[in-house]
């Protein structure tokens, strides 16, 4: 077993192995998606997320791709700060439901409205469908801010893993398109290049749970079946021209994650391009730890860091978990 993971992570790895859970590339698409939903439901039952003022499912409308979204309101504020959230899952698995607890915690702790985007996924809808839906949903939020009771001047983007890839790509697209204005981007262990090739991919690509380099290849083959698309900056944001007015970024990384090195490199690439970047690394953590609320102390710390970063960006006090 790994000797560099935190004891709380080791406990999760042990329980995962004992339960006979398998990586998605071994299960296949249908069973892999079902396992992700089942694990998320069990996680919510073991550690119930906070109750919010309102949770509503709706769609963005025909003019904005008719994308399903879920709106989480923490208050009756007439113009609340807003986070557009993109779930992870390799652009292939997971859903609004698998990340419902993360969205609830984010809305509660940051005191904001969260709008989680149910973008189209591969292989049914390969690249660039997810990118198109994510940008359309973000435009919808900005252009319907008054009806949504959110402040378009305090619009942030957030995602984990593949969702973080979408968050930073949408930020770049918004800059290139002249809007909407993005106040901040929160990138939790982002996928930057599915092809890997980094030292962390070699070091942590196997033996650290059900996410590794084989999983990344499986996701890539579904999301980016055309090899030429893997160089497109909308799939690999490190290939984008990052110069210009991009929003400040918080980049969260996990030590024992195949994606660690590419996320660190991207944070430095943003910084070199003049973007204000906060990088927060978590020792002994694996990919996915951000969702281990109630199980891993570092997950609580990471969520608190996100709330603090957003509060700093929005210039308002932040809450703490449980308040």
Provide a short characterization of the protein structure.
The protein has 323 residues and is an alpha/beta fold. 40% of the residues lie in helices and 18% in strands. It has one domain (7-314): Rossmann fold (3-Layer(aba) Sandwich).
At the fourth CATH level, what is the homologous superfamily? Alpha/Beta hydrolase fold, catalytic domain
Q: Which second-level CATH architecture applies?
A: 3-Layer(aba) Sandwich
The biggest sheet, with number of strands, parallel, antiparallel or mixed sense and barrel status, is: 8 strands, mixed
In total, the number of domains comes to 1
Within the CATH hierarchy, at the fold level, what is the topology?
A: Rossmann fold
CATH class: Alpha Beta
Task: Provide the fold topology.
Elements: H1 7-18, H2 24-27, H3 29-46, E1 54-59, E2 68-73, E3 80-86, H4 100-110, E4 113-117, H5 129-143, H6 145-148, E5 150-160, H7 162-177, E6 184-188, H8 199-204, H9 213-223, E7 249-256, H10 260-272, E8 277-286, H11 297-314
Parallel strand pairs: 3-4, 3-5, 5-6, 6-7, 7-8
Antiparallel strand pairs: 1-2, 2-4
Helix pairs in contact: 4-11, 5-7
Structure write-up:
This is Alpha/beta hydrolase fold-3 domain-containing protein. The chain is of the alpha/beta class and 323 residues long. It is 40% helix and 18% strand. The model has no long low-confidence stretch (mean pLDDT 96).
